[in-house]
Amino acid sequence: MKRSRLGLLAVAVLVSLTLLLPTLCRDDSTLQITVARERGSLPDGFFLYQLLEDRGIRVKSITPAKDSMIIHLDTPEQAQAAQLVL
Q1: Where on the phi/psi map is residue 24: left (φ > 0), alpha (ψ -120 to 50), or beta?
Q2: Are 10 and 26 in contact (CB under 8 A)?
């Protein structure tokens, strides 16, 4: 059951990123993710951190904001790689 929730959560994040891709980058190395559906929920920062770090993407910080998560990375290349992962 826990695995299916994580899978569903990952799909929700992916859909959110795909729909909001043009507005996600605040600068070259920062991403903002939001929930695409009204009843969806954001993953917690620890889940996002693990997901990105496991794929070799170094995260500087993850900050919760109103209805979103802001992910700060070291380089624009890492931000681009994170977009592909998420």
Answers
A1: alpha
A2: no
Residue found under tokens 């992916």: 14
Strand pairing of 25-27 and 30-34?
antiparallel
What are the tens digits of pLDDT across the range 8-28? 777 777 777 666 655 555 556
Burial-class residue 79 by CB neighbours within 10 Å (0-12, 13-18, 19+).
buried
Helix (H, G, I), strand (E, B) or coil at 64: strand
Nearest to 68 by CA among 52, 49, 45, 47: 45
Give CA–CA dist 79/58, Å, rounded.
10
What pTM did the predictor assign?
0.63
What is the distance in angstroms between the CA of the first residue and the CA of the last residue of the chain?
21
CA distance 72 to 24: 12
